[in-house]
Design brief:
single chain; 319 residues; alpha/beta; TIM Barrel; 8 strands; 54% helix
């Protein structure tokens, strides 16, 4: 049995792509997108009809140019989500504009708008995860949204402070970014590679997973942003893992035994202390991790850059 089939026995596999053909090939339970993935997919001719549909929706008369672009972008995110839900059996993650990462009210408003667009198409909010950056403001927005039955995927997560605050806010799911943590430490150490068993990104997810299981938090842990299959196999047993098509293909081609590395039971014997965070203690604890500070701000900038690229491409079609 290949490694991918074995992994699916322990962990729910999610497709980290905006490409529908890849999803059909690997049969993930969920899919997650972001502006970077949608921008890449939108360059392909096969997705032109989604752009045309979104532009037609967004450019209704009586709207200003700014409103037309905003409405088109919202519909484009939902249009991709609707297509994805024809392929995956469960949920799709749709991202709130990264420029709202420090705006709690703006994030809540945008999430409600996206959910409304899905519900207009007959899609239940249970099928959608709203992706929000795991800033203090994003976590505060998620707390509000979860109480309304709008489930959230907290992204750009690099620190234990972020993970604890998300769990205390009752969010549905978090996406710790394994590969970007690996990148930072590899650069810091001046090495070409860190083995999976020593990978700081892997250890970060393990620590979060065991903390959640030890203290009975319902928040799901979904490892994300992988650089190699070693990182993935080291996290066999994590609640979910979102994996790019290239790494899914590697796992499918690889044979050999795969051992489950994470189990909820293992957390019970661990000497962990429960931590509660208010805004001040969250900001201090997060600030004490230079990698997390750097990677969170860089991630918000990167997602924003790709959102702007996508807007620039789409705006050429708006009249």
């Amino acid at each position: 049995m290949n490694l991918l089939d074995q992994l699916k026995k322990f962990t729910e596999v999610v497709a980290d792509t905006g490409d529908f053909e890849s999803m059909k090939k690997y049969h993930p339970v969920d899919a997650t997108t972001n502006p970077s993935l949608i921008f890449a997919a939108a360059q392909k001719s096969g997705y032109a009809h989604l752009i045309e549909h979104s532009v037609a929706y967004g450019t209704k008369t009586g709207r200003t140019a700014v409103q037309k672009l905003s409405e088109t972008m919202d519909m484009l995110a939902v249009a991709f989500g609707l297509e994805i839900l024809k392929i995956v059996p469960r949920r799709v993650s749709t991202e709130v504009d990264a420029r709202l990462s420090f705006d709690t009210e703006g994030s809540v408003e945008k999430a409600r708008k996206l959910i409304g667009l899905y519900e207009d198409q007959g899609i239940s909010r249970e099928k959608i995860l709203i992706k929000v950056a795991a800033t203090w403001e994003g976590i505060a927005a998620a707390r509000v949204l979860e109480k309304e039955g709008i489930h959230c995927n907290l992204t750009l997560l690099f620190s234990m402070a972020q993970a604890i605050a998300c769990a205390e806010a009752g969010v549905q799911l978090i996406s710790p970014f394994v590969g970007r943590i690996y990148d930072w430490h590899r650069k810091e150490r001046g090495v070409d590679h860190i083995p999976g068993s020593e990978d700081p990104g892997v250890h970060s997810v393990k620590n979060i997973y065991y903390y959640y299981k030890k203290f009975g938090y319902r928040t799901e842990v979904m490892g994300a942003s992988f650089r190699n299959t070693e990182e993935i196999t080291e996290l066999a047993g994590c609640d979910l893992l979102t994996i790019s098509p290239a790494l899914l293909e590697e796992l499918e081609r690889a044979e050999g035994p795969l051992e489950r590395k994470l189990t909820p039971e293992a957390s019970q014997s661990m000497d962990l202390k429960k931590i509660s965070l208010d805004e001040k203690s969250f900001r201090w604890m997060h600030n004490e991790d230079p990698m997390a500070v750097e990677k969170l701000s860089e991630g918000i900038r990167r997602f924003t850059e790709d959102m702007v690229k996508l807007e620039n491409a789409i705006s050429k079609q708006i009249h």
